[in-house]
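Morning, I've got a small favour to ask if you have a moment. I owe you a coffee for this, so here goes:

…
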Amino acid sequence: MILQQTNKRSPICLDIGSRQIKAVQMQYTNGRWQVAAQSVIRKTPDEIAARSFDGQRLRGILQRQGFTGDKVLVLPPVGVLRVSPLELPRNTQGPQRDQVARVEFARENRIDGDAFEMAWWPLPEPGRATGVTHALAVGIEHEDVTALLDELQRAGLIPVRVDAAVSAYMDVVAHHPDGGRAIDAVVDIGWDETRIGVLVEGKAVYERRIAELGLRHTHEQLRQRHRYDEQLLDCLLDSNHAGAEQVPANLVQAIESRMAAVFNRAGDETRVAMEYAQHRYPQHELGWAFVIGGAAELPGCIKSFSQNANVRAALVRPQDLTRGDSHQTAATGGSAGTLSTAAILSEVA
């Protein structure tokens, strides 16, 4: 009798940010994929200053925290990705249309036509017919992706796919039980910026980045006003809340008040973005706003966001995409690994 393999591990997904790396690995057990290991790895000051990371250090941490294997999916830093809407002639198909998309993307971003990799997808038809095919494209320059992959390969890690956050938005919606049937949004409250991805019929049609809503600004304002050590602020502003019980009550209140203001503004911006999409696609109703990122778990944030967005809103954690509980490591990152989980589920599907 041959026993079926019940503990298959996925590649490790690495969501590489400016000051931390979110890592997630999944395991196939009892007929479904579940989170097996999850961690938020803080970069060193030297890594942050160099806008890079030490691959050997990263791999050592992954091994100590229960990750196995050497294959990785990579979500590069948002700053090196370019997202552009395109208009393509309807009379082109196949490789010819791909070439036209490449030329248009290079022109839009003012980069050499041979110096980048890209992907694109056609968008749903708008309410008013036009003579072109509307598309959304995402790309990364060879110089940026090569440096990233070389560092991973020097550490013995094997990149099997490079993805983009805007693509992972589609993965989140595709794997969430309430997603993909209307105009949805994925809202990621990050360190450098807040990103709002708008999707129609499960396809990303628009992305907005708002730098002033990044946690960096909240962190600096609170540090200057309350003069607490940065690590104390990180306990509640980052996705790894270990040690938060040591934060004084007045600082907790200040953080929650400030973050409520951030989520109020994020809700306003999300409503505007979704209403713009509805104006363009009037045949679709407004659906859900899926909020991700560790800060979204602070008390009251989702309520503040939902009231201002005037749409149904939900905090999305990795287990919400797997239809079950997650077997996570002690260094769990809550909702911080949601994009990585979605990317893995699409890879192993």
In short: The longest helix spans residues 249-280. The CA atoms of residues 41 and 121 lie 32 Å apart.
